[in-house]
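Chain A, query sequence.
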Amino acid sequence: MAVQPTRRSPRILALSTIVNRQPASPSHAKAPAKRCKLSSTRSSKRKAPVRDTDVPSKNNLPRPSKKRCLDTSIYTVRSEPDPQYLAPAAIAKARKQYFAGDFNPFHILPIWGTNPYNTIWKEYKFPDPKTHTLPPMDPPPPLKRLSIRYSELTSVEVIRNWDGHEESENDTSIFRTCYKGKVYILKLFRSWAPLGGAEWGPHKFAREKRAYEYLLHGGVCAEGFVPMCYGWFQLRVPKKSGWLRSVASDETPPYALLIEYIPDAVPLSVSNISVSAVEQLHLAAEFVHGAGVLHNDIYPRNTLLRPDGTVVLIDFDKASTLPRADVNRLSLKFEMQHCWCMCYSRMTN
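Chain A, predicted structure.
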């Protein structure tokens, strides 16, 4: 399968210092390496994945405006790594030592020194409303509701499925599925929750649906930092279904999200990590935060590395969005701090 080009413009890629050194494609001029807000005049170069009324084309996707993004520069750190540690031979040596002794390859390379986010608001353990409250944002439009029947879906791959154990019944199921000739990710959430179940299917669905509303509204999906989400629906599953038999006996149909499938993407791990990938992850997290979304679960399993070296964040079923009180400048800073520590100190397979 041919490698799909990233949707990110050279201007966006220029925000990553390492990627900015990579040669630009002949058809795109390299933009200056500076921070800039998302432009309301930018149009996505993404081609519509399907020609179907249920799935919106690029012309129907929300376009970002200046009021749809937060200024995250107050806690954003950008600096140059030590060039001696960028050599492929140095990284290859560190990776070899990891496989011999289970150490993160960057843990033994003092590329960045100590975590630079530790010094930002270090006197605060809890948010101060006067300092960390975020400004209000334009509310996003509701996520499109689709009309998709079970008979229109074909299972391609079971990525994660309920196994029927009681302790896992609050989890989600994820499938690679074919719908009208195109491949998508189908994410299912049980539509019922027991009494006292704080984070069961309906709650996870509400969090992820709301997060995608903000991410689409802020242009984060259009830039390729997060997969496209084409809409939601409730999927009525026949009693004698095959690949969805785990939810066939539920009294109410599960909630479903139809999400972009990213071919040939793999989870970030010590076997494929690079300085460029780490900077791409931080850039992705920054744009997610700029849309008013706190991911709350940024780990290697939710960080996909594409063949072109760009990073995509997935799984927003634990995310918080504005105007929730837990989305503030301090919590966003803590998540960036966690990203740095995960990549340079703690990452494991």
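Residues 17-53, 62-66, 164-169 have pLDDT under 50 and may be disordered. The chain has two domains: 70-138+264-346, 150-260.
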